[in-house]
Amino acid sequence: MPRPITPARVPIAALAALLFALSACGGGPKVATVSPPATTHHTTTPPAIPGAGSCRNLSPAHDDKHGIEVRGTTTDHEPLVVLFAGTHRTIQSGKALTTYVRVGGVRALQISIGDRAGSVRRLLGFRPGLPPFDWPGAGTPWTGTTTFPQAGCWRVDVQRGGLTGQLWLRAS
């Protein structure tokens, strides 16, 4: 007949089982560290929207008390307005600009910027949101950051579901 386990032997048996389990697991899972995701990535050039403009025919823009507001053209005649908050007189290149976008359509917003050489970058991180000041207008408001890497003419393409919009501006 086997001897009953005494209370003193229970912790020793538990410790032995724990050590056995830990040694069987080896070093455990390895977690790789990577750099955080970029706010832009390269993409292909979206198709042009007829009547949206060009580097010779920039989109209408005006400087108001909150920044420079640029009006674009969409395929469905929905509103497209981009506000570069805190920016006055010129849209600066090489600087992260707080950007607000009002656009119709449904689903997630996709924005890309393209220069004259054909290099296109998709902007990431835009989310629904209003600025901390009154900014009336039609369309859903979105907020994010835009950086134009260099001075020159830029094409801004906006897509939300089946809606496609475009505007042209000059950064300096």
Short key terms for the protein model shown above:
about 170 residues; mainly beta; Immunoglobulin-like; six-stranded antiparallel beta sheet; 1 helix
Q: What would you say this structure looks like, in words?
A:
The chain is mainly beta and 172 residues long. The protein has a single domain, classed as Immunoglobulin-like (Sandwich), CATH 2.60.40. Helices cover 9% and strands 38% of the residues. The protein contains 1 helix and 12 strands; from the N terminus they run H-E-E-E-E-E-E-E-E-E-E-E-E. The chain has one helix spanning 9-24, and strands at residues 40-42, 61-64, 67-71, 73-74, 80-85, 97-103, 109-115, 120-123, 127-128, 140-146, 152-160, 163-171. A 6-stranded antiparallel sheet has the order 1-8-7-11-12-4, with no helix packed on it. Strand 2 (61-64) and strand 3 form a beta hairpin. It is elongated, with a radius of gyration of 27 Å. It starts with 8 loop residues before the first helix and ends with a strand. Mean pLDDT is 82; it is low at 28-37.
